[in-house]
Amino acid sequence: MSLPDAALTHLRQVLRAPEPPADRYKIREPIGHGGMGTVYRASDRTLGREVALKVLRADVAGEDAAIRLEREARILARLEHPGIVPVHDVGTLADGRVYYVMKLVRGERLHDFARGVSRADALRVLQRVCETVGFAHAQGVVHRDLKPSNIMVGGFGEVLVLDWGIARIRGTPDGGGDEAAAPTLGAPSIAAPGEADTAPGVVLGTPGFMAPEQARGDAGQIDARTDVYALGAILRAVAGAGSANQPVPRPLAAIWNRALSPDPGGRYGSAAELAADITRFLDGAPVAAYRENIAERAGRVFRKYQVAIILVLTYLAVRLLFLAMRGL
Amino acid sequence: MVEAIRDADPEARRSAFDVLVTAYWRPVYAHLRKRWQLEPADAEDLTQEFFARSLASGFLEGYDPARARFRTYVRACLDRFVANARRDERRLKRGGGVTLVPLDFLQVERGLAAGDGDGRDGDPDAWFEREWIRGLFTDAVADLRAACRDTPRQIRFAVFERYDLVPGSDADRPSYRELAEALSLPVTQVTNHLAWARRELRRLVLERLRFLTATAAEFRAEAEDLFGEGDS
Questions:
Q1: Which of A13, A15, A60 to mutate to test the interface with B (most CBs of B within 10 A)?
Q2: N or C: which end of chain A has fewer CB within 10 A?
Q3: Verdict on whether the full-model pTM lies above 0.80
Q4: Three-state secondary structure string covering A114-182
């Protein structure tokens, strides 16, 4: 007996749509798709607010994928920072798929935002991204998939680092690659003993923003400097793009060149160090990545203090003129 | 399965072939009827002969996963098979063709007739895909029914059957409350049973799909088509 059309269509719909606890969340439209999950806009009936609900895609739903999504939720919950989307709730749908609920963020992805702003504004956003990533590093978490589309700039100036789906917790063993060994929800620590993430040789990330050690699948080499490389690639893409009429200052290019060093030892030691160099550049101070010559130094000092210098020079010129007139 | 149909062991090959026939007889028949406009009796004979010849001559074994999905390859083989049959002016003896397994062509015929007005007629490939999906779900539902029969889970399947397998439109579907009253269950139990059955059905469909695809990439692509965010 074959299924009739109406039943077939209905089954495909109900097997596709998430069914969160009906008394709490009402699913609206999908607002984003990733390799592992789909993000829906949803209404939280209990608290009367809109939220984002990320659920495993039905076609990848499996034990490994469920564990990955749980890990992502637990990592996000651990990273309480204004630059990281807070997680409100985690659970299992009626059909067994894992979901988590987070703050609904509205804004522009970095690549769109950067098109409409000055280089300095784009750099200020990147500075905050580096600070957020630096915070995650301090908590032992490496993002591993930083790219402009994973950074959102909100309408009120919020800068959020998204998609921690393949983040790695520093200090957890990589050997074996047995995702199923990871603890399930409710485990006391995300860095629980025995938890493994990516097996050696498995490549996760985005080409163009992936450090060489990550592209090689060299899990043992991955640390905070892997994210520094991606931040350098973002810096180059965002601050170096669209500036055909505006040459890139050498110190700025030196910053991303240091971040993009193929050898992790040649990069900044952390995202915080990179953020500090971007801050120095924005403040007109010498950057650690670039040794400037006397002329460049004079030019930088002039640009930094040009108003004061012009005022002093004007004052001196007027004074000289006055003295000259008195001597006549 | 795709690997198993190349197996040197005839038993293993035959077994894989049975799975292949179960998954593909509906789309093959629908394709012959819609794409090639064959009469029902000729389409039935040619469906049987297509599978019999593919088992005997092994032409499905030449599948290369790097080039296409397996079902695309099956359809291409079928088109070549029919074109050759027409070129050779081969005449199938009515009733004298090969019969691999008893297949209920009448039910597919009813589906083809019912779908004539829904806009699929202009695209013969859509018929092939739709019937292939129908086969997957129909067989998965049969697996679920068999797994529940004569067990305490029978009530779960009964809820699922009365709610999700309603042949008519959504208006014909009972409410959870009506269903609960009809089966003397609390409403929460109805939704729990339904959720369990759907979860199991999804697992069974994906299990079959995994078996019917040659590579992880092909499986993901097919699963995305089945359960992704695209149109049904």
A1: A15
A2: C
A3: no
A4: HHCCCHHHHHHHHHHHHHHHHHHHHCCEECCCCCHHHEEEECCCCEEECCCCCCEECCCCCCCCCHHHC
